[in-house]
Write a structure and sequence with these properties.
The structure is a single chain. This protein is mainly alpha-helical. The chain contains nine helices and no strands. The chain has helices at residues 3-9, 17-39, 49-66, 79-97, 116-141, 147-165, 170-178, 185-215, 221-234. It is globular and about 50 Å long.
Length: 235
């Protein structure tokens, strides 16, 4: 799900299973973008780093309570405008959480470049997680019942990674696999639903593999928890 679609889909639960599932997926996409924005932030006061986690949660909760968006005249309608909206929302949420006696200059500046040390730490963490995720995917692929199922699982892993890092879109993946079979909007919706379900099963298999590796002592508790957060956020 792309960023603009997520912005338009996130909202309160309706009781409709399909709509609620789309809304949860949209909230995860929004949170992922807020994570990216916060990773690129610079903080004048390191004591305020903890504010970002609470601020991101506040932004998502506010979007859920006020959604669905994208129907108001002044709602952002492009990835650039949605990111700008989220940047402003993150800063405002940080301001709301900041104690009254703190000055505004101490707020995280989400548009400023990150300090090299922070970038290095984030890059190292990302590399560590990728290595652990490779271990988990190898473990999970071993539970597939056939070579074909294993190939499909690994393809889904690759697709999820491409969607997460923005190198591919869901429509591009569907067009490659199904092409003319999704020539109508209804067919495309069904194709996307099938893809969401496949990716959901892939992530669930990885979560199960993470727990299995932790039980066998091949993953430390903190490593397993980091992977669970990553996989659940992706889902």
């Amino acid at each position: 799900m792309d960023l603009v679609t997520a912005f338009r889909k996130v909202g309160p639960r309706t009781g409709n299973a399909w709509e609620d599932e789309c809304s949860e997926l949209a909230a995860a996409v929004i949170l992922s973008e807020l994570d990216r924005l916060s990773r690129s932030s610079r903080h004048r006061s390191t004591s305020l780093l903890h504010l970002l986690a609470d601020a991101k949660a506040q932004v998502v909760l506010r979007l859920i309570s006020s959604g669905p968006r994208g129907v108001r005249e002044d709602d952002p309608d492009s990835p650039v405008r949605v990111r700008a909206y989220l940047q402003a929302s993150l800063r405002h949420a940080s301001l709301d959480l900041l104690p009254r006696e703190r000055v505004q200059d101490d707020l995280p500046d989400v548009t400023a470049p990150a300090r090299p040390a922070f970038e290095d730490a984030a890059a190292q963490l990302a590399q560590d997680l990728r290595q652990l995720l490779t271990l988990v995917q190898h473990e999970a692929s071993g539970t597939c019942r056939s070579a074909r199922a294993r190939a499909g699982f690994l393809q889904d892993c690759a697709e999820i990674a491409a969607l997460e890092n923005g190198t591919r879109t869901l429509d591009e993946l569907i067009d490659e696999d199904e092409g003319a079979e999704v020539s109508t909007p209804a067919q495309r919706r069904r194709a996307k639903n099938r893809r969401y379900q496949r990716h959901g099963r892939c992530l669930e298999r990885q979560l199960q593999a993470t727990m299995a590796l932790e039980r066998r002592g091949r993953l430390a508790a903190r490593e397993a928890e980091a992977l669970r957060v990553l996989l659940e956020k992706t889902g």
